[in-house]
Amino acid sequence: MFGWLKRYMPRGLYGRAALIVALPFLALQIIVSVVFIQRHFEDVTRQMVNTTSVMISEVLRAADETGVATANAEVAAPLGIRLSQEPLPEAPGRLWYDISGLTINSRMEEIYDLRAIDLSNIRQVEAWIAWQGDVYRVSFGRPYVSARNPHQLLVLMLVAGAVMILIAFVYLRNQLRPIRRLAAASEAFGRGSIVPYTPSGATEVRAAGSSFLAMRARIERQIEQRTLMLSGVSHDLRTPLTRMRLALSMMDEPEAADMRRDVDDMNGMIDAFLEFARVGAAEEMVETDLGALIGECIEDVRRMGRKVDLAGALPELTMGVRPIGLKRSVTNLLSNAARYGKRVRLSCEVLERSVRIRVEDDGPGISEAEREAATRPFTRLDPARGQNEGGSVGLGLAIAADTARRHGGMLRLGESEDLGGLSADLILAR
Length: 430
Hints:
Blueprint: H1 13-66, H2 68-79, E1 81-84, H3 99-111, E2 113-118, E3 124-131, E4 134-141, H4 152-190, H5 203-249, H6 254-278, E5 286-289, H7 290-303, E6 309-311, E7 318-321, H8 323-340, E8 344-350, E9 354-361, H9 371-374, H10 382-385, H11 396-406, E10 410-415, E11 422-429
Parallel strand pairs: 6-8
Antiparallel strand pairs: 1-4, 2-3, 3-4, 5-7, 8-9, 9-11, 10-11
Helix pairs in contact: 1-2, 1-3, 1-4, 4-5, 5-6, 7-8, 8-11
């Protein structure tokens, strides 16, 4: 029913908490103001008009019996009322913010035959009253029929409310600061960075912070153990592989050449496993010229005898990246594209909050149903990309996807509109 309100609600925790604090207070202010206006501006004003009408009636009776001059001197003057006979005003008025003036007008119309009333002067009331066939102009002070400075209570409420809301916002901001620090530490850890963090704030926030630190420590130990395990396995495997290579080098049989290629493929697989295990593990963010880094990747692939076309100019942008991991990922994307296609094109576009590095080729591509699986480690899509060629172990796209996540972005696979093959977008958050 109220789903449309979600579009106008603040999205941040601070904005929503501030709204929770401010809305009840403002609602209370409105309710109190309405009650105050009804009781003070209406009931009190009506009572004061009733009291003043008694004095006006005495003055009018005296004027009817003794004349205006005598009534002014003997009755009206002591009461602070002035009586005269003057024509009706052309345009009697009332100030727009004079709320009690409405009650004064309506109540005097109930008591007298009121012909006109002028409330344009906030300190004076001018009323033309018909009495015994004559029309009298009755002048008296505004305090006779309304309270002095009735707006003071409203102003006091507004000022006090604004001060209390400001104090509540300051306190609320201090309470939300530990949550923001926890969110920043979690986001940084998701990108592969370790930022100093100490639990603080309320008990629940401290508990969440302590749980995050314990989780981060477990993940770090797991990553370290994985890296050490793969390093140990690779070290143990390289020794027999080296002996096999030496033994094969001394053999002249035709089968020896095929076996040497198998040994080389096994060495390449071990290197790929270690590369995946180490990608971005111990690398910190460094302010790097992104255009120069992409240019180095293109030159490295070209030196391997692969042709790479550049669409547009490289960006002149310096941003914090992990240069080794990013260079390895871009090089892997270019090498894979050159392996499976004849034409390779790279483009780089700087967006408002991200940078998109796109690598396209004219190869067979990857079907939409298999694109998600293609970014998983050790996944080989033989029918689509011919990954039996070159001893591939299915880690190129997985390394690129992991690098993108460590930079707060993602790896997005699609179909190249111009070349017809695979389009790989490496998106990095700025």
